[in-house]
């Protein structure tokens, strides 16, 4: 007798999975931002393990080698299939449990079976579960049998080996849930009707990877120093089982969005027409992805992540139009997304107004763009009919898709209404070319580096005292490495020397603050070496990179001295960064988030998310607010506390930072409170002065401010004062305050002179026109006026053409002008002659004479070139062309 299936919603399934592994000693890791931090190989976080790479390759040793997470992820390699399949999504949640060198097969397999079948947890019927494994993985096969899986529910599959090239690899095992033949999309006797086949009966719900080999550059597989476990369970798939849903879309994760879209449509209902259902699914899927991406700081644009958001939004808008929704509507779905996901992602609902405003603005912009695309498409259709063609070329169809967001299906429908077809092969070629460009632009690599254990096993504690002391006496060398190997002594001239002391005043680079530099001194006061950089070792000790002047020995003791003046400048800039962060939130709105920072000796750089421009007025308000806090002489205090207590203080935290049990909070009076492990001044008055040097966009929805403080700010302002004084002298004004008025006078005089010059040029052009227009030639295809004129450029050539057309002086006009290595040429054809003569054809025939090219409409075309000396030849060729 089969077990009755539990009824769990998405929030319950997610919580149950995480709680299970927490009970088995795992630390719950928060879902990281979809925008990767410090990982240029990824466009988006695309799996649970993507956030664990630094642990698996040994760069960082986690506090707990057992971790579990529900990680939101985006994959966009197959957007066109979303809505057409039962389980394809652009954003999904991956439930996972991970072991970094701790447990392995004999632990994880029984746990998996317990979670899936125990009545306390998922409670699935064991008869409904099937497991595939790598044929040579006898350990996994034995562990599954011992866990309680029936032999006839275990299937060997050669594909069960996880390998993406160099780096960690190993066999894997997959678990499938049998939904019954009534849920299948293939006949019972179909060869694909088995666990792992292409069917809807056996639903893959979990993949467990046994990462146990290093795939070497020599294409061999060597045992890893530390074996790891990496698992992935798709939340949407598992929820579809508990809610007995035919596809993922009929679950509580998507149905509220589909129902709300039905209301917007008013005429279309989900489940009535399969074609309409695709559009409902596209909207529900895409608005989730767009909402979460914007919540995590990405914004619509024409490149990278922003392009993905824009593309998804436009697909959703077009899907809405197919359902009869002609007004912006996606932004109204944002609160619904927030409510669905509120139990685990409360920030989405908190930021709903901001996210909705971004989406609404993009929807309105796209409606304008869509109209522009329709205009282009109508022109293309008209030209095709005029030329007697029955098709739209692939490049044009791709331009409509890529620039205007027209799905190829939409272009085909419009074309079919006019009796035309679309060049599918040409469209696919253009699509492939664009995908290749995108692939080269971002070398996406989901792999991990080969494990290294130089410092991985080094766990002796090292204490950082730089918050209070910039000099330390008798610091002991407890760890020493050279060229990736532990050594007892390092010598001058040795490269890649790394040192760990039992106590250090040197700050390790973190949170945007650069590392300290300084000296290592022996007991006799002699310089032993220079500390040139400090990073964190895998177990978080401060790892000093040094250039040696004399031998350095493990176990010996030395004095350590930080470059004090450099350190104090960095402190000032770091505290100023906190003041700036708060000022931006106060002036621009609470939606602004830090997107990166750099705190150097001589300046600070602060990146932040913001949709739209920052006005000069806003920038001044920000700068004034920061200086106001400096001059208020506010005490800067720090406190170390637990994470929950810090959150209750409303301390600003960053997506990019992972916080442990204890956190350090920096508080600037009542003005600003932030999580921060960096160095700061004791009072804001130490900063002295704050000055913004520049502000501008650096990416999709990301702005950057660069600023200086203290003596660097004074120097910056002094240089500008010197420039203003110099300008006043050149303008011959007595006082600096007279400079703006004098500049305004000069600009007014210049504008007047330009007007007079333009009037004179127009008069000269008119005089030339009288002479030029008198010389009319007869050709086989009509009358021609062709001449070289001395005018200022293409604009005046067009003015002459307008005069010619108004007076109807000939059938064809060819004019050219050239100077300073540039040539401009224009061809005009009278309207009644365009059926026989196309201006674009004429210009293409004669433009090579000036080493140029061009095109245009049937009645007007133009070209530019770099060979003015070829103009006489071009004019001669025009006459020859019309005499054919």
TrEMBL record:
It is found in: Cytoplasm. GO terms for cellular component: cytosol. This is Alanine--tRNA ligase. Catalyzes the attachment of alanine to tRNA(Ala) in a two-step reaction: alanine is first activated by ATP to form Ala-AMP and then transferred to the acceptor end of tRNA(Ala). Also edits incorrectly charged Ser-tRNA(Ala) and Gly-tRNA(Ala) via its editing domain. Residues 736-770 form a coiled coil. Zn(2+) binds at residues 574, 578, 676, 680. Its cofactor is Zn(2+). Keywords: Aminoacyl-tRNA synthetase, ATP-binding, Coiled coil, Cytoplasm, Ligase, Metal-binding, Nucleotide-binding, Protein biosynthesis, RNA-binding, tRNA-binding, Zinc. Its main location: cytoplasm. It catalyses: tRNA(Ala) + L-alanine + ATP = L-alanyl-tRNA(Ala) + AMP + diphosphate. It is an enzyme of class 6 (ligase). Residues 8-719 form the Alanyl-transfer RNA synthetases family profile domain.
